[in-house]
């Protein structure tokens, strides 16, 4: 471990980190009277919740508002499903989204990231979210799906409407949720229509891209319906875009905050994969995952009634002193690093290898291109609403080339 005595997260995340610590110190599992839900905070209990889909369901469809434009989304959105429906869809999609398909993206990701950094030109000040962290994952997903380059801007626009605001996910109040969903419904409708056309095109003109593979995927004579594919594509956008933006921004921010760790990485670039794991542990983009109890359950000595909402707090679990030495140190030499940032169990992140690859490529390029990288002005750093995602929205950098 390096001599890193700082125990806080960077800038605006301090309060959040304090909140996770204080909550966990009050007990591993506790009922939040105000929000009317159970907070699960220690590593062992969070892993236990995520490993038991029979007791802790991911399906909130009974509680969710019925906005017709989101119905299609729901059909292929297997992150919100339980077995056996989850297994059927995940297996089908796995046929199309293979490790080989992901590995094959490497040269394109490298080319796109290079192109984006080239566009920075010789400026010595730029916003790394605007320039790289935001556009890279959306372009990668669009390419993965075989979306024509000319339509990329559409995808970027939709993503900005869907994830740009602070509304979605910021409140559990049903009226707020309905209002937030209504505001984005026209975008969802337009996107569904576009993706449906795209799928139909690939049915008529099969190729080798992910969309054609999704159309062809078959298990026991069962294929994905068009609606399920639309839902999966939407899931890719939700799960694969802003999370990767968050990871990239959080990595740059953390390395700025911890210069000893950044120096170690510059001296030993082979450490990059471990650095990425520590950033993932330190600032998990999705800080918590929701589940619903299907029956009365016992957890860490508490009894949770059936039909309770349970929030499995990944961020708190990632700093559980029972699992991690010096959990509040950002330590890029940490090994092993059993963080729960990609979830655990049957819903373990499907895109983890892709996210890790994008982060490796983008961060390596940044380090190669710039001999010095510093946050230009801390006052200008803007974070997203952390109730939605732990991520920066603006991160102005000052750079030097050697
Ligand atoms: C699931 C995090 C990137 C696709 C999940 C889950 C987490 C997560 C925590 C589990 C959700 C649950 O159990 O309820 C992240 C983080 C990412 C990232 C932190 C980036 C740093 C990606 C990417 C893709 C992706 C790049 C695809 C392109 C998915 C899918 C699921 C999922 C499809 C659902 C898996 C299932 O339900 O079986 N992700 N993700 N994710 N992720 Fe990711």
Automatic annotation (TrEMBL):
BP term (GO), one: cholesterol catabolic process
Matching Gene3D superfamilies: Cytochrome P450
Molecular-function GO term, any one: steroid hydroxylase activity
Keywords: Heme, Iron, Metal-binding, Monooxygenase, Oxidoreductase
One Pfam family of this chain: p450
PANTHER family per UniProt: BIOTIN BIOSYNTHESIS CYTOCHROME P450, P450, PUTATIVE (EUROFUNG)-RELATED
Family listed: Belongs to the cytochrome P450 family.
Protein's recorded name: Cytochrome P450
């Amino acid at each position: 471990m390096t001599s890193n005595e700082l125990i806080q997260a960077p800038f605006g995340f301090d309060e959040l980190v304090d909140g996770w610590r204080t909550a966990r110190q009050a007990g591993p599992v506790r009922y939040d009277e105000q929000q009317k839900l159970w907070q699960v905070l220690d590593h062992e209990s969070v892993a236990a919740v995520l490993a038991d889909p029979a007791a802790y369901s991911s399906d909130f469809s009974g509680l969710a508002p019925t906005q017709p434009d989101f119905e299609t989304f729901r059909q292929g959105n297997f992150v919100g499903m339980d077995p056996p429906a989850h297994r059927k869809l995940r297996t089908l999609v796995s046929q199309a989204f293979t490790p080989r398909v992901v590995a094959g993206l490497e040269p394109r990701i490298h080319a796109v990231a290079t192109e984006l950094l080239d566009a920075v030109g010789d400026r010595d000040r730029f916003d790394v979210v605007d320039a790289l962290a935001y556009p890279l994952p959306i372009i990668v997903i669009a390419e993965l799906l075989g979306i024509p380059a000319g339509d990329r801007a559409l995808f970027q626009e939709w993503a900005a409407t869907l994830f740009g605001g602070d509304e979605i996910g910021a409140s559990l109040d049903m009226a707020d949720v309905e209002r937030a969903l209504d505001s984005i419904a026209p975008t969802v409708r337009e996107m569904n229509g576009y993706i449906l056309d795209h799928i139909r095109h690939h049915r008529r003109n099969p190729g080798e891209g992910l969309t054609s593979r999704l159309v062809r995927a078959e298990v026991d004579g069962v294929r994905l319906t068009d609606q399920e594919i639309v839902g999966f594509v939407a899931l890719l956008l939700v799960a694969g875009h802003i999370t990767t933006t968050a990871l990239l921004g959080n990595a740059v921010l953390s390395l700025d905050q911890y210069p000893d760790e950044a120096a170690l990485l510059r001296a030993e670039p082979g450490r990059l994969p471990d650095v990425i794991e520590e950033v993932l542990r330190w600032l998990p983009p999705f800080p918590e995952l929701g589940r619903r109890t299907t029956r009365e359950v016992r957890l860490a000595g508490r009894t949770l009634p059936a039909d309770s909402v349970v929030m499995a707090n990944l961020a708190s679990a990632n700093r559980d002193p029972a699992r991690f030495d010096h959990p509040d140190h950002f330590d890029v030499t940490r090994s092993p690093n059993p963080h729960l940032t990609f979830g655990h169990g049957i819903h373990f992140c499907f895109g983890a290898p892709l996210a890790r690859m994008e982060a490796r490529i983008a961060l390596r390029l940044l380090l190669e291109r710039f001999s010095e990288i510093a946050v230009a002005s801390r006052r200008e750093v803007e974070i997203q609403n952390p109730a939605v995602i732990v991520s920066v929205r603006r991160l102005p950098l000052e750079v030097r080339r050697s």
